[in-house]
C-alpha cells in the first residue's frame, strides 16, 4: 500500500469516528495549558489533572507564578515526575512570561521555546491547540503510532516524524491528528503489545501487515511453543529438585 493511501485512510477513519478529539489535560486558559503541558513531560495526563486544580488556585496566572519560587511551587507538584526540575521550570517560566511577554503566552514557536521547560514538543502543542497553528507535536505516542501505522518511514527522531506528518497530512488536520495519534497510542496501539485484535486500523496498518503474514504467524507460533516447552522443563526440574531434597531429609532422619 502506498504511504499516501495510508494517510488517506487514516484521516478518513478518524475524521469520521473522532471528529472532536481533544487533549485530556484540564485547562481554562493558554497559561493553564502551558503549565499543564510542561508538567506532563514523562508523566500521565491523569496525574497532572489531579494536581493542577490546587496549583491553579494558588497560581492563577503568570504574575502569581513569577512572584513565587521553586520551593513554594514544589509542594503542589510533588507527586508528578521530576518535581524539582519542573518546579524550577515553572518559576522561571512565570518570570520570563512576565518580563518578556507581559504575562501573555506567545504564539510564535521560537518565542515559546525561550521559556524554561518549553521544548519543541510543548511549543507545538501550544501553537496548535491554543493558536490553531499548522503544527504537530510529536510525543512518544505520536512517534510510535505513526511509525507502526506506516505514516512515517525510516523516521528515527521526533523531528523527522514531525516533518513527514507535516508534509503528508492535510494542513487543517494537523492539530487534531496529534490527539488522534495520542489517544490511539494511549488506549489501543500501546507501547509493549499493541491491541491489534481490537484495532479498527488493521486493514491499512503497516505493522499489522508485516506481523500477520503466514511466515510471521508461524514464527510467532514457534516462539510460543518454545516458551511453553521451556516452562514445562523448568517445572519438571523443580519437581525433581524438591523430591531429591525430600529424600535427602528422610535419609538423614
Ligand atoms: S493494527 Fe496494531 S499496530 Fe496497527 S495501529 Fe492498530 S494496534 Fe497499532
TrEMBL record:
Cofactor(s) annotated in UniProt: [4Fe-4S] cluster
Residues that bind [4Fe-4S] cluster: 189, 196, 199, 205
Documented EC number(s): 4.2.99.18
Cofactor binding note of this UniProt entry: Binds 1 [4Fe-4S] cluster.
Keywords carried by this UniProt record: 4Fe-4S, DNA damage, DNA repair, DNA-binding, Endonuclease, Glycosidase, Hydrolase, Iron, Iron-sulfur, Lyase, Metal-binding, Nuclease
Catalytic reaction annotation: 2'-deoxyribonucleotide-(2'-deoxyribose 5'-phosphate)-2'-deoxyribonucleotide-DNA = a 3'-end 2'-deoxyribonucleotide-(2,3-dehydro-2,3-deoxyribose 5'-phosphate)-DNA + a 5'-end 5'-phospho-2'-deoxyribonucleoside-DNA + H(+)
Coiled coil location: none
SUPFAM superfamilies tied to this protein: DNA-glycosylase
InterPro entries documented for this protein: DNA_glycosylase, Endonuclease-III-like_CS2, Endonuclease3_FeS-loop_motif, HhH-GPD_domain, HhH_base_excis_C, HhH_motif, Nth
Spans annotated as Disordered: 229-253
Free-text function comment from the UniProt entry: DNA repair enzyme that has both DNA N-glycosylase activity and AP-lyase activity. The DNA N-glycosylase activity releases various damaged pyrimidines from DNA by cleaving the N-glycosidic bond, leaving an AP (apurinic/apyrimidinic) site. The AP-lyase activity cleaves the phosphodiester bond 3' to the AP site by a beta-elimination, leaving a 3'-terminal unsaturated sugar and a product with a terminal 5'-phosphate.
Family of the protein in this entry: Belongs to the Nth/MutY family.
Protein's recorded name: Endonuclease III
